[in-house]
Amino acid sequence: MTEITPLDDVHAAMQAAPTDDAARLRFYERLGDSELFLLLKHEAEGDDISPELFDLDAGRFLLAFDREERLSQFAGGAAAYAAMSGRILARMLAGQQLGLALNLEVAPSSILIPADAIEWLDHTLGHAPSQIEARIEALHPPTGLPESLLTALDTKLANARGLASCAYLVGVTYRGGGRGHLLAFLGALEGAESALAKAASEALTFSGVAAGALDVGFFAPADPITATLAAQGLRFDLPQPAREEPAPPIAPGSDPDRPPILR
């Protein structure tokens, strides 16, 4: 039986409801988070890659697949590729006037994504949350949040393996009268704060919540506030690495700050 991938699922939901903005957002969120395999003309040379380019009536497109097997099926056998996340691929294509042919002819999620949609995805994923300072007056259970946001948070945090021990979603009242919701991370790794805050921001964006806001905070497990967070909040457990493994060699597309160079 042919494997149905997460991208197949969200693509099917988007196709079934073409006017549903939330379904379309979920597709682009999954595209950004997925590992993709970009078809190359030949093996990468350091940071330089030479993707296959296809000229179609709708523009110029690169080909990428969400499984190696699908790439091989399209190519008719083994072929050179570069593996990278959808967000890195979008960053690489930004400003190039290139679209993305995803899973072309080999999967239910076969789709042509035009250059302007790639530009939008890169801009959306590149948005960084702002930093503010506020003093907490009281915490209370979260209320009024849509299921789409809770699902998006659960999915995002499941991909943040080992970056923190857990997170609590709570309602919060700040000194001065401000109210909102806070996603409080416990035991975040040093240097992981920006990645976790960005994951929370993307969950809010791609859940389709209009004009929503979600604050993010970081606390040590021994902080006095932890007991209140546990009593009042909705808990999200982040997956933890089973064991420490040696770092793999850096491959083209693995560093979001150094996307591969098109040749």
Automatic annotation (TrEMBL):
SseB protein N-terminal domain sequence ranges: 12-120
Organism (species): Pontibaca salina
InterPro entries recorded: SseB_N
Pfam families for the chain: SseB
Region (Disordered): 236-263
Identification of the protein by name: SseB family protein
